[in-house]
Amino acid sequence: MGVAVGRFDPRGFFLFSPKKRLRASWSYKKRVIPRSVLCGSMLFALGLISLFIGQIAADLELSRLRGRWQSKRGRNEPIDIWKSKYSDLYYGCSDRGPHFRSALRESKSNGYLLIATSGGLNQQRTGITDAVVVARILNATLVVPELDHHSFWKDDSDFANIFDVDWFISSLSKDVTIVKRIPDKVMRSMEKPPYTMRPPRKSTPEYYLYQVLPILLRRRAVQLTKFDYRLANRLDDELQKLRCRVNYHALRFTRPIQVLGQIMFPQISGKSPLLKATTDKLNVLKRWPCKANIVDFVVLRFEPDMLAFSGCYYGGGEKERYELGEIRKRWATLPDLRPEDERSRGKCPLTPHEVGLMLRALGFENDTYMYIASGDIYGGEQTLQLLKDLFPNFYTKEMLAGDDLKPFLPFSSRLAAIDYIVCDESDVFVTNNNGNMAKMLAGRRCTGYF
Ligand SMILES: *[C@@H]1O[C@H](CO)[C@@H](O)[C@H](O)[C@H]1NC(C)=O
Ligand SMILES: *[C@@H]1O[C@H](CO)[C@@H](O)[C@H](O)[C@H]1NC(C)=O
Questions:
Q1: Nearest ligand atom owner, CA of 138
Q2: 3-44 residue pLDDT tens
Q3: CB of 110 sitting under 6 A from ligand 1
Q4: Transmembrane residues, as ranges (predicted)?
């Protein structure tokens, strides 16, 4: 689902670390549009076009990287809109407005909202984000969402195994009251178990106010199931900002996941006591070959379920048609797609080989280091070989973390969290499929630090 490209300096310092502070949201205040802002916007527009047309999200860093190379070769200086004198026209999306009222206390709320999320880690992340906003719309007290243990991804992890639950509760305390469970006293006073319902996709705030609130008031607790993409995209600004606060600030991975993710990403300067203490125990760093002065790396996803879902054909003959066809049967509601049509409409994720060709065409040379963020690659080694031929230096979390990864192996969501961290930290992120993870990361990389 995603390809990320990054580069790091083996001395331990991020070459582009300032970007994280300089990045801002896409919007800027309308006034006279100076030329350089216009150029910046056009760059953005080009980026967006590449995202939608080619299903390839190559973020701005790529052009910056190319700019660097070009300047090394003595051509034009790179354009860095974040450092331009107009960068203060860009602003972040996460800060609450001065008139956004405080959360209602538990005792004053309209009842308890229970949420059961659905799908893989990043899909569940959208569910959690929207759960907080729905609780806000309903003036409900949110119970920490329950993760999906039955999806295709089969993972028994609970919220607290993946996300820092105390941080989640405390960082959102001004916006929504969140509790770990319904207090026993309240449970005992309830006549019936919580009412369970499944809202339609992308329901409006009115839906929640007219269909869910009355039941919540009557029963004191409502459980919303299969909760992913259940809230409309269009919301008022303050609720959108709340979404940003949840997704980009309140959802923080637990420490063991963060530590491993950070360590896999070789940017340790020896300055962080937390990381230093842990690196002494883990020897991941030794496994990164740091022979070159500057190293690049790339991340790619290519899982069977994702391929089956796409309805495309990837050149694997009858065997592939049969195998992907079988997987497709898991989703009863998938439309009957003609693979040729999907491909001609540009809807098919790139194969690893195609990703390799694309990156080479963009100027990444064969000494680029790649990080492959993926569950099972369909076709395994054989599929990867063509990519490996183009980029011999490539790594997966299994290769990098070795034994340190063992405790995480039974938990697909924790593994996905590690990939998320590495992709998030990388300087360039490219995706071969615009799935949940790619969308989450694209948003986070644009606005996450505000
Ligand atoms: C939520 O609480 C606020 C402040 O008390 C109130 O103005 C608003 O109408 C309430 N909304 C609902 C749905 O209860
Ligand atoms: C990269 O390509 C060059 C020239 O084609 C070749 O000499 C070199 O061995 C390749 N490097 C790797 C790591 O394969």
A1: 1
A2: 333 333 222 222 222 233 323 333 333 333 344 444 444 444
A3: yes
A4: 37-58
Same fold? 3-16+255-302+349-447, 106-250:
yes
pLDDT one-digit tens code per residue, 95-137: 888 999 999 999 999 999 999 999 888 899 999 999 999 999 9
CA atoms within 13 A on the CB side of 386: 12
Residue written as token pair 């606005």: 447
**Residue 40 to residue 68: CA distance in whole angstroms:** 17
Distance from C-alpha of 326 to C-alpha of 307, rounded to nearest angstrom: 12
Return the amino acid letter for 138. Answer: L
Cα distance between residue 119 and residue 149, in whole Å: 9
Q: What is the CATH number of domain 3-16+255-302+349-447?
A: 3.40.50
Q: Which CATH architecture has domain 106-250?
A: 3-Layer(aba) Sandwich (3.40)
Closest ligand 1 atom to residue 138 Cα is: 13
- Cα pseudo-dihedral 70, 73, 76, 79, rounded to 10: 40
Q: Does ligand 1 lie within 6 Å of residue 177's CB atom? A: no
State phi, psi for 62 to the nearest 5 degrees: -60, -45
Q: Tell me the C-alpha distance between 58 and 13, whole Å.
A: 23
